[in-house]
Amino acid sequence: MNLIRTAMLLAFMTALFMGIGLLIGGRGGMMIALLIAIAMNFFSYWNSDRLVLRMYDAQEVDERSAPEYYGIVRDLADNAGLPMPRVYVINNPQPNAFATGRNPQNAAVAASTGLLQALTYDEVAGVMAHELAHVQNRDTLTMTLTATLAGAISMLGNFAFFFGGNRENNNPLGFIGTLAAMIIAPFAAMMVQMAVSRTREYSADRRGAEICGQPLALASALRKIAGAAHQVPNATAERNPATAHMFIINPLSGERMDNLFSTHPATENRIAALEDMASSFSRPSTRTAQPATATRKTRSVPSTGWGRDRSEPPKGPWS
Known about the structure:
- The protein has 319 residues and is mainly α.
- It contains 10 helices and 4 strands, in the order αβαβββαααααααα.
- It is elongated, with a radius of gyration of 21 Å.
- The chain crosses the membrane at residues 7-24, 30-46, 141-163, 175-196.
């Protein structure tokens, strides 16, 4: 189903790209847009995950540089029966996280320093389980492709402002066509993002709760992240709003209503669903999947919040 959905998404985005080209430059513009769309589809399939990670200046970590965080992801991946994804940290005070990659074999998960410093151990596990659920459900390809192509369509719409009004071009609708390219096309791209985002979050919440074994820990994490997301700005996300749907909580300001114009379902609805799930869910401890405490204590770990040895005084996410 996800493969069909992704193919339909690519077809729609390509047609939209061609339509903008037609409005801006006539048939010649449409053919140029088609060639660009084909090239972008190919590039996005193979490289969109790297592009998004680079956009947020994500730094890859391993068991030596972030043993607790890396260990959480490793053991949750084992629980889910997934290959070990690449693990990244984003130096950003807003608590948030996302997953990317074209398939489980080429997946990556990323958490912000704000998230790793603000959440408890079990809450971090709940968030990363949610992201691994996206990987397992193969949402990440659709999410990342949408982010790349929607951003390109919005940029092409902006080009219309500079080039569409030229009377010497082949634009069949003149100023009206240019105005449509500037307003309708980016709006249509945003609508695709919203259609992709809303239903998959509930599914990832449920599967993530199953992977980590603690739906209430994920619910608590969502409550904390949502409370901070609109208080702590994410400048990179604000500059690249086409990527907002990739995060576990919308990183942009002013998006709280559970309606057609929201990139995510209302957090209150997601929390209610998880709490309802918890009432009938057998919840084994997440820590049963973790290495023995004695083993972790013997590791040489940095003193930063998201990599502290748990034998030291509680701080950051490990309280």
